[in-house]
Design goal:
The chain is mainly β. Helix content is 4%, strand content 55%.
Length: 111
């Protein structure tokens, strides 16, 4: 496996509608303390997307320290994105820098 590549295990959730996923980045050059976990939890019907991320349900992603992550919440048909909770707030794009383990929730409602 090339250094810095991404290995996705069960993470094509929008297509398969699986309840969870786990995406890992290869950190073989770094110590284990250089890796942080991003937990994503979706309330309602929608997906969270970002570079190498497509999450529907609950996802845990391991990222290198200092990694910059931009998450977008995409509601399912007829659903509305209400906002973020946890490490992100508001209704805009969620921008994070991984300096610790982080957790976000994307909240969707049906009209």
């Amino acid at each position: 496996m090339l250094k810095g590549t991404i290995a996705a295990i069960g993470c094509i959730l929008a297509v398969l509608s699986l309840p969870s996923c786990r995406t890992e980045r290869d950190t073989s050059e770094k110590g284990s303390d250089s890796v942080y976990r991003l937990s994503i939890n979706i309330i309602g019907a929608g997906i969270v997307t970002g570079p190498d991320i497509k999450c529907k349900g609950v996802c845990e992603i391991e990222l290198a320290r200092g990694a910059k992550v931009i998450l977008n919440a995409v509601p399912a048909s007829e659903w509305t994105f209400v906002g973020w909770d946890g490490a992100c707030r508001g209704k805009n794009t969620c921008s994070l820098t991984m300096e610790s383990d982080l957790s976000v929730k994307a909240i969707f409602t049906y009209p």
